[in-house]
Write the structure tokens for this entry.
Amino acid sequence: RRYPNVATTGRSANAATTGYSANAGTTGNYANAATTGYYANAATTGDCAVAASLGIHAKAKASATSGIVLAWRDQCGKLLGIRASMVGENNIQPDVWYTLNDAGEFVESEE
């Protein structure tokens, strides 16, 4: 599927999508967002939540008490590594989009 989007709100309200430009967004404590696919983005604004983007050219952002997970892939989709961080560690700032560079390191991303 192309461009599937999902958004949820509420405590433990999780969201997951897959596909090209698949976006998942949540708000609420313990509300996790997960995506896979080219240019798939995940964002969460609640406390104690995780935003995980597992596709090529994916990005993620989370609030101050949450974390992000990104998959590092080559252009063919081969998994090269996985990076995860709590916001506030590894220079990860709250409510900022992150992606991985060619070396598999976190970098700020354009919105």
